[in-house]
Amino acid sequence: EPDSEAAQKKTKGKGKKRKKTCWLRHHILTSKRRNLMQSKENASYCMEMDSQYFSSSSSCSVQGDMRITLSETFKEERVPSPVIEFDDLEGFVLQPAQQGVTVKCKVTRDKRGVDRGLYPTYYLHLDNEKKVFLLAGRKRKKSTTSNYLISVDPTDLSRGGENYVGKVRSNLMGTKFTVFNNALHPNRALPDMSNARQELAAIIYETNVLGMKGPRRMTVIIPGMNKDGERVPIRPRSDNDGLLIRCQNRNMENLIELRNKTPVWNEETSSHVLNFNGRVTQASVKNFQIIHNKDQDYIVMQFGRVADDAFTLDYSYPLCAVQAFAIALSSFDGKIACE
């Protein structure tokens, strides 16, 4: 009996200790949160926490819990896409966004099915109440390199179908991607190349030679725009005259060079951060913003995670939906050489 009494006291003591530890931890979090609230500058920083890019999770457990608490407290509503109407879906997804309008979309990843674990299907919808479908994309199974087909029909992802509007093709390393429309291969096109396929974009991921984990670095090359706000057609006769080679040779006539915005290192959170203005809510190496070097405040495109298989994608002029969706698809592809 004395032994059992001692054991009961010991158990009660442990329970008190656990309660005390939990109370202390709660007190620490509450105090830290109160101190942050007292400063206007810190309060605005906390409001941004929900929408920032975190490529590192090296913060301690208390900071991690505090970050979650603050993001829940200051969570901003995801602003929906403006009202956009169109009669021709294929025409809309290939047309640049209207100047002054940010098209806000949502990408969902479907892994259900026998082979969709390795070859998921991605869907692009307008991020509004109607959730208007725009595009679907899926990696081809029998291809030596990553090759994604893009369709305006969620049920028809065949290259021979009428709904095929473009594709994304990578190099062997998976670090460079080219985006094409649905026109003919140069070998089958007319001599004047008028019906030959166009290159809509090239995406280049910088290789990580140091082997250190960190934010991705990417460059996006797209055709330039003419005075009427229309895309300049780029129809190379071979890969030796495509966007990737032109960029490599710095032959940038009629081309626009875009880059991802460099995240800022934050000492408090021990992570890289970007402000997505409430449109991104979860940490991911895939989160990024695309800007022009001459105007880093103008976000041409931003992409980021909001759930395990859901992402927001916002794009502006001069990008079109196919270009933006293709850039997002390239980010899903594995990049051993980059991270």
Automatic annotation (TrEMBL):
A Gene Ontology biological process term: protein localization to cilium
Domain Tubby C-terminal: 94-333
Keyword DNA damage: no
GO molecular function: actin filament binding
Location of the protein in the cell: Cytoplasm
Keyword field: Cytoplasm
PROSITE patterns with a match to the protein in the record: TUB_2
Signal peptide stretch: none
InterPro entries: Tubby-like_C, Tubby_C, Tubby_C_CS
CC annotations in GO: cilium; cytoplasm
Pfam families from the UniProt entry: Tub
Record has Methyltransferase as a keyword: no
Family: Belongs to the TUB family.
PANTHER family: TUBBY-RELATED, TUBBY-RELATED PROTEIN 1
Protein name in UniProt: TUB like protein 1b
